[in-house]
Amino acid sequence: MTEVLPQFIQVKIDRAKKETAEEVTAKVTRKTTENVTRDHLLNILSTTNLTPDEAMDLLGIPAADRPMYKELLKKTGDYHD
């Protein structure tokens, strides 16, 4: 009985570590995707005469994600409403 409890605790700890690692991986992946997409937008905007919306059309950015990218562009100073 005394060995079952430590094994149970270790299983819980291992599961928590795995879930935490998956959450961190998902967050880093999302943030990296956002940064790369922002960089692509900035490149398109600096090398063409496209508007931010036209650049997002070109990249196929979903309408639901566009407000976030507009905010990211605002932070760089390359987009104004």
Explain what you see.
The chain has 81 residues and is an all-alpha fold. The protein is built from 3 helices and no strands. Helix 1 packs across helix 2. It is rod-shaped and about 70 Å long.
Structure described in brief:
With 81 residues, this protein is mainly alpha-helical.
Architecture blueprint of SSEs:
Elements: H1 4-47, H2 52-59, H3 66-76
Radius of gyration of CA atoms, rounded to a whole number: 21 Å
Q: Span from first to last CA?
A: 66 Å
Uncertain stretches = none
- How would you sum up the global shape? rod-shaped
What is the residue-averaged pLDDT? 86
Q: Which structural category do the helix and sheet elements fall into?
A: mainly alpha
Number of helices: 3
Strand content: under 5%
**Succession of helices and strands:** HHH
Could you tell me the number of beta strands? 0
Approximate helicity band: over 70%
Q: Note the main sheet.
A: none
Keywords:
single chain; 81 residues; mainly alpha; 78% helix; 0% strand; rod-shaped
